[in-house]
Amino acid sequence: MSKPKPDSLRPTNIDVFFTSVSAATVSSMSTVEMEIFSDTQLIIMTVLMLVGGEVFTSMLGLQMARSRFKVHDSPDGDSVNSISHEIELGTITHEKPSTDLETNINSSSTKSLKYKATRYLAYVVLGYLLVVHIIGSSLVSMYVSLVPSARKILRTKGIEIQTFSFFTVVSTFANCGFVPTNENMIVFKENSGLLLLLIPQILLGNTLYPACLRASIWVLDKMTKKVEFKYILENCREMGYGHLRSGVCCALLAATVVGFISVQFVLFCSMEWDSEGMAGLSPYQKFVGSLFEVVNSRHSGESIVDLSTISSAILVLFVVMMYLPPYTSFIPTKYQKEGKEKGGKSEAAGKRIWECVMLSNLSYLAIFIILICITERQKLKEDPLNFNVLNITIEVISAYGNVGFSMGYSCKRRLSGEMGCTDTWAGFVGRWSGSGKFILILVMFFGRLKSFTLKSGKAWKLS
């Protein structure tokens, strides 16, 4: 096990395990301050975030899709060649209808084209991943090196520019939200250029990934004129890649994302423009900071303000945004009907007994909140200003949405005024018991795998 920095307190085993799970599930829930981790531990966390990111894990699905092809479906077109060879040798009887032969050849060529298209799609996803990380980390590194205020912050904290740049870009693109500073992005709230560099990373790696992926394939199709790219664009459903959507769906998704951001931005500016968290910032810095905050509310969890200072109305809005899946979009009824007609048979065929008794995801979240309130019931009585149902709900929904937003903990809000309490930049869960932390670990796993349970609970009818 790698060790933290020499001058830092060694975290407990449950905290180390919690942080590892948080990085692997790209949740960024923290029980300890980030600056206690050594460079080796930061590298390990970077690998966990990279592997746990949605774009990286989706490449495994593409590899599995390629492995489903049989040997005779390879791009070499062996099956087509063998049929043509049999025709030349006269081994195919003339009694067999020519239409059957043509059907076999067409079917074989289609499978061969699909295999090639799947391989091209895997290359596009890999290139997308590499280009975003290389360009992103280079721009962040360049910005920090050229801007004295940002460079001074890292020098004061003893963080290398290259380590900060790559760690932050990997975390941002994976929508994890970890930053190698205790205060997250609060210390950089005046560096509007850095915030503007990170906003596209957030959108490219999550909510707008399908739209950007399709746009990339469309550009490659226009540049190369290869039939494989055209096949990918025209056969999104047949490709078996969940992130590949039709042009209409991508347009509706992008419009929905912009709509959510716009609504949050207007409300956040109207409620928090003159708040404590925005104090000392110029109007331009407030504009960029507000945009950065609302973009992060969906899934990333990086923050330039202390959430405990935000108004309750904005917190409730953030809870709703954190609960929504990344590809939530407004789809007109006519498109929904078409999707149901195409996928209805497969869904009906896949019914199981356990699917008929499963609860909805919202029901499971309510159960998790109840369990945590039971494990932390003593603290709810002794420290009600810190330990209240709203703060616990925000922590649970944030873990479920793999966001990482936390209300934190403040010694000033303690009613008892006990001595020995020290404020830290660790998340609110850092003050929970071991049982509460373990339950939140389950919530993070449940949230990371929520795509498999989004349609659960349909057997329960409220009437």
Automatic annotation (TrEMBL):
Belongs to the TrkH potassium transport family. HKT (TC 2.A.38.3) subfamily. The keyword Acetylation does not apply. It is found in: Membrane. InterPro entries: Cat_transpt, TrkH_K-transport. This is Uncharacterized protein. Its main location: membrane. It is a multi-pass membrane protein. It comes from Hibiscus sabdariffa (roselle). Pfam families: TrkH. PANTHER family: HIGH-AFFINITY POTASSIUM TRANSPORT PROTEIN-RELATED, POTASSIUM TRANSPORT PROTEIN DDB_G0292412-RELATED. The keyword Ion transport applies. The chain crosses the membrane at residues 42-62, 120-144, 164-182, 244-268, 304-324, 352-373, 385-405, 425-446. Keywords: Ion transport, Membrane, Transmembrane, Transmembrane helix, Transport.
